[in-house]
Amino acid sequence: MDRIDFRSDTVSWPTPAMREAMAQAKVGDDVYGEDPTVRELEALAAEMTGKEAALFVASGTMGNLVGILAHAGRGDEAIVGQDAHTYLYEAGGMSTLGGIFPRVLATDDTGRMDITAVETAVSPDDAHFPQTRLILVENSYGSKGGYPLPPAYFADIRAVADRHGLAVHMDGARLFNAAVAQQIPAADITQHVDSVTFCLSKGLCAPVGSVLCGSAEFIHNAHRMRKVVGGGMRQAGVMAAAGLISLRQMVDRLADDHQRAQKLALGLAQIPGVLVQPEMVKTNMVFFNLAPDVPILADVITEAMQQRANIWVGPTGWRSFRAVTHYWIGDQEIDLFLDTLRAILAEA
Ligand SMILES: *Cc1c(COP(=O)(O)O)cnc(C)c1O
């Protein structure tokens, strides 16, 4: 890459093998259902999540949106965590386009909603209330340091959903990070949800794309919703070819990203002026803060990191940062990050 970019795993460029596969991809018109590479990707995604069918979409946001629209409609209610991506960072799509009413619940340090609170939030069949249709969950949990939630939590959510006839959709943008961190197949997690979206374009390095997975009937409905939002793509096999490499070659190596994030967190803990909780770093994200006695702010530090070493890191507030590891961040880049930050803080 042209810079050392810790801002997100979305910045990762496609690998050389992906560029090669994209050049060679067999294609057709996917709106006619005739792109063999898209079909192959959808079949593999369905298999890896233990679902009947799948749909290739342009982004994680689109996958969540068409998934939500296929489960619920105008006047329906969706239970969602207060800092879930689907609630905070998707431009309110479920309400804007679906007329779906979010019922927002608190989450704990790892992104879990309290199970009793979820059950209590389900509206009774009374004309005063919107009809609860859907529970939205997320794994790994982005707003909580990319925490990988265990299957047992989703089994509890499933039990509530089953008692009340609700659907469960998982925003699994980083589903495979969650699975690899727990050394379990992704399907062990997704067995408890009706549908799941995961991103090919983050840690899995594809340039574009996400996949929505669920039952054949659900995907049939989601296919129409994808058309509604203008998401039908034509010779999309060019992109799906990279996605096939993501699923075949890039999943197991996510463990390297997690190891490097751990190394980064442990290194940060040794730098005077940095506050970090390495024990909360379970996947590829490291959130850290400046101690109260550090006299400079985060934006000054991120600027200095760029100028000194071409290292890009995201400030998340006046005195806080997020650093994310991915395929293009190796051990040397971790060392350079630590050395550069240590030097900047020593001079401050
Ligand atoms: C990135 C992300 C999304 C959305 O993906 P895009 O491809 O950027 O639209 C959804 N949920 C979570 C948790 C994410 O991190």
Throw out a few tags for this protein.
18% strand; 14 helices; four-stranded antiparallel sheet; seven-stranded mixed sheet; binds pyridoxal-5'-phosphate; 348 residues; alpha/beta; globular
Briefly say what this structure is.
The chain has 348 residues and is an alpha/beta fold.
Q: What would your notes on this structure say?
A:
- This protein is α/β, with parallel strands linked by helices and 348 residues long.
- Helix content is 42%, strand content 18%.
- The strands form 3 sheets. Strands 2-8-7-6-5-3-4 form a 7-stranded mixed sheet, with helices on both faces.
- Strand 12 (314-317) and strand 13 (320-324) form a beta hairpin.
- Helix 2 runs parallel beside helix 11 and helix 3 packs across helix 10.
- It is globular, with a radius of gyration of 21 Å.
- The protein starts with a strand and ends with a helix.
- The structure holds pyridoxal-5'-phosphate (PLP).
Low-confidence runs? none
* Structural class estimated from helices and strands: alpha/beta
- Cofactors and ligands: pyridoxal-5'-phosphate
Question: Percent helix among the residues?
Answer: 40-55%
Contiguous helical run count: 14
- Gyration radius from CA atoms, angstroms: 21 Å
Q: Spell the H/E element sequence.
A: EHHEHEHHEHEHEHHEEHHHEEHEEEH
**Could you give the order of strands across the largest sheet?**
2-8-7-6-5-3-4
| Beta fraction | 15-25%
Largest sheet: 7 strands, mixed
Shape: globular
Topology, number of strands = 13
Mean pLDDT: 97
Distance between the termini: 30 Å
